[in-house]
Each structure stands twice: as C-alpha cells, then as structure tokens.
Specification:
Elements: E1 3-8, E2 12-17, E3 25-26, E4 29-36, H1 40-46, E5 48-50, H2 51-60, H3 66-73, H4 82-87, H5 90-102, E6 105-107, H6 111-119, H7 125-131, E7 134-136
Helix pairs in contact: 2-3
Length: 137
C-alpha cells in the first residue's frame, strides 16, 4: 500500500493513501507529492490534532453541539458524551476524563478515539482518519 504525503504551498501537509497521485501547478500553487511505503497503521500512530480542532470535528460529526464544544476545548468533559463514559469500564472512564482535562492534543490511536469509533454507529476508521488529516483515496 503506497502512501503519499502532499504538501501545498509548503505549509499544509496531508497524508493520503492512493494508488495514483497527480502533481498540479496552477495559480502559483505547487503541490509536491512524495510517495513512500509507510503503512496506514504507522501514519495513524503518529497522527494527532489539538483539542480545539478535535472538538470542531466532533461538531461536524454531530457528536457535540457548538456551545458544548467551546467548554470541551477548555478541558471540560462534554455532558452529551456522558453515556460514552458509561460504555467504558469504570477505570478507563476515569482515565479518559483525566486525559481529556489535561492533554492539549488528541492522538488518532488514543483509546478514547478508538473506542469512540466503536461507540457511535457510522464512525468508521476512515472518518476518524479524515478528522485527523489522514485522507484516503
């Protein structure tokens, strides 16, 4: 499986998994594509986003409301996700809340993120990848 790293204007990088990659130059936007053999699992292991971006993603997925996301980005547990805590074993629920309150970045392979995908119907690994800037093709 080939993975391409796409850099746009030397400032934005997204990793995409695709068989064919085009290089495009238009309106002074140069896109440089580098093909490598990095497995998707390794890309997921290194992917993370700040808590604010993650909260915005949760809004986009319809998991939390905008007003709740502001509080959540500050480290407060989203009350609409209390049922998620009941889905977890008690010790893991405590760990998830402590990590949420203290960590500024959320990792793609965080137990919370992986469990969230199985807790919610329709949240596939590919949807989670997109949330973390990993775009599959």
């Amino acid at each position: 499986m080939n993975v391409a790293q796409l850099t746009v204007d030397n400032s934005t990088t997204a990793r995409i998994n695709r068989a064919v990659v085009d290089t495009v130059e238009a309106d002074r936007v140069l896109r440089t594509v580098t093909i490598s053999d990095i497995p998707i699992e390794d890309i997921r292991a290194g992917a993370s986003i700040d808590k604010g971006a993650f909260c915005k993603g949760l809004i986009g997925l319809g998991i939390i409301a905008a007003d709740e996301a502001v509080s959540a980005a500050k480290g407060n547990w989203p009350t609409s996700m209390d049922s998620f805590l009941r889905y977890l074993p008690a010790d893991l629920a405590v760990d998830v809340q402590i990590e949420w309150a203290t960590e500024p970045r959320i990792s793609r392979n965080n137990v919370f993120v992986l469990t969230l995908g199985s807790w919610l119907d329709g949240i596939t690994p590919e949807i989670l990848d997109t949330l973390f800037g990993i775009n599959g093709a």
